[in-house]
Specification:
The protein has 493 residues and is mostly beta strands. The chain contains 4 helices and 33 strands. It has 2 domains: 22-186, Single-stranded right-handed beta-helix, Pectin lyase-like (Pectate Lyase C-like); 195-493. It has a 12-stranded parallel barrel.
């Protein structure tokens, strides 16, 4: 009797959904051709989620799709030999979302496998759009999602930014291979998310490589780690900004290699910048931190990064292009080595009304082409409080050959070495309107004796210089400006 009652109770209970892996071939999806099979693959994703989640498996072959929308609990697995090819019927085939693989307000989703996503950004239906135009599809786009994984996938020829995360929480990106040079706005990975780990990725892109963005004033991208990546870009391989409305907090980027891009179909920097030979492939700034939209940027650490194929190894700016001055504080650069093109050195600049607070540069070794003139050394760098933030925003020359710092406080420099391949008439370092400076171990390595000054101070206060070594400069320190005071050093002034 008891067994019969238990059986009746069991029949009355709802059937719980069970995880269900699906091979799309079992639903009649066939690879090949340019006919979109979006609907059938989407049915597999929907069914998988409805039955408790699992893996939707695409066997080898070429599949043409518009926007595929991931759902809760679904892993889209692209097996080796699989190509998920974006439809060129734009915008009709992307009405469901802003990418080839998209997710909106989804939990526990993933894109994995050794297959490829090809955005076909070279197609005329995308090429007709100019810079920042057309609302073209990303390769992968996640918005308001939680617990996201993207792993092992190769991505080629995105028609817009390649992988875009917007207001997501809990993201793991690992072992991606991104090559995207087919069109303007070909960023590699754009992160507007929190609690993010990016590791072991290879990125070669026309626009920024790994770029943190902050588009929502009410959402703070924070707790972000990037490590063990190889990055090449015609713009900025590592960048925080340009969009910085809320800001960024608690970011660590380490153990990365930056090198020159493989090609450039959009930019020809040798036509704009001095001392860059025609045909040279190079990015702009190796590491760029840009606080320009009123947000708060704090607690950043960049370490153990080797770079070549860039112009300006480190670029940090704070301005108010939207009319609001935000804040930028507590930034550490350590263990950075760079070989740079052009004549714009490491550049850090706030604005007169808002200083950058707390900058540390430790164990920095940079090589520059040199060739700065006496006119360059005398050049007064203009302000650019509402300019677009890039290394050329203050002009195409700089009065320093190694490091320029302006409108900052609490600056520590420990072991900064500058090698010049040609003579340069500019000081190694120039500091303008900087308070609270501690400098130890600055060295210039020149091909011939130079008459330049090692460090030039303009309206600076509370300066300490220790452990002076042997240098090529005829003048170790030059102090200018009525506001300069409390200069402590054993060097002759």
């Amino acid at each position: 009797m008891k067994k019969n009652i238990l059986a009746l109770i069991a029949l009355a209970l709802p059937v719980l959904a069970q995880a269900d892996d699906i091979n799309v071939a079992d639903l009649g999806v066939k690879p090949g051709g340019d006919k979109a099979c979006t609907e059938l693959i989407q049915k597999a994703i929907d069914r998988c989620s409805e039955t408790g989640g699992g893996q939707v498996y695409l066997p080898g072959g070429i599949y043409t799709v518009g926007a595929l929308c991931l759902k809760d609990g679904v892993e889209l697995h692209l097996s080796k030999g699989t190509v998920l090819q974006g439809s060129t019927n734009h915008p009709e085939d992307y009405k469901a979302g802003r990418g080839i693989v998209v997710a909106y307000k989804v939990k526990h989703c993933a894109v994995t496998g050794m297959g490829m996503i090809d955005g076909r950004g070279w197609h005329e239906n995308f090429q007709r759009y100019g810079n920042n135009q057309g609302n073209r599809p990303h390769a992968i786009y996640f918005e308001d999602c939680e617990d996201v994984t993207v792993k092992d996938v190769r991505i080629r020829n995105a028609a817009w930014w390649t992988l875009r995360l917007f207001r997501c929480d809990g993201v793991r990106i690992d072992n991606l291979d991104i090559y995207s040079h087919s069109i303007v706005n070909n960023d590699g990975i754009d992160v507007d998310a929190r609690n993010v780990i990016i590791s072991n990725c290879r990125i070669d892109s026309d626009d920024d490589g790994i770029c943190l963005k902050s588009d929502d004033r009410d959402f703070m991208p924070e707790n972000i780690t990037v490590t063990n990546c190889i990055i090449a870009s015609n713009c900025n391989p590592i960048k925080l900004g340009t969009s910085s409305h809320c800001g960024f907090r608690n970011v660590t980027i380490s153990n990365c290699v930056i090198h020159k891009p493989s090609e450039s179909n959009v930019w020809n920097w040798s036509k704009e910048y001095r001392e860059i030979e025609p045909g040279t492939l190079t990015g702009l700034s190796g590491i760029a931190v840009e606080a320009v939209d009123g947000g708060t940027i704090e607690n950043l650490h960049f370490s153990n990064i080797s770079m070549s194929g860039v112009m300006t190894p480190i670029f940090v700016c704070l301005n108010k292009r939207t009319g609001i001055a935000g804040s930028l504080r507590n930034v550490v650069f350590s263990g950075i080595t760079a070989k740079a093109h052009g004549i714009i050195p490491c550049l850090i600049s706030g604005i007169p009304e808002k200083k950058i607070e707390g900058i540390t540069l430790r164990d920095i070794i940079v090589e520059h082409i040199g060739k700065g003139t006496a006119e360059d050394a005398a050049h007064v760098l203009g302000e650019s409080e509402k300019g677009y933030p890039e290394n050329r925003m203050y002009g195409f020359t700089n009065p320093a050959c190694g490091l320029y710092v302006r409108h900052a406080s609490n600056v520590t420099i420990d072991n900064f070495q500058v090698t010049l391949k040609n003579p340069d008439a500019r000081p190694v370092m120039v500091m303008n309107d900087v308070n609270g400076i501690y400098v130890e171990k600055v060295k210039d390595i020149l091909p011939v004796p130079s008459t330049q000054t090692l460090i030039r101070l303009i309206d600076c206060q509370d300066f300490m210089f220790e452990n002076v070594g042997n240098y090529n400069c005829s003048a170790q320190l030059k102090v200018e400006g009525e506001k300069s005071k409390n200069i402590k050093t054993s060097l002759p002034l």
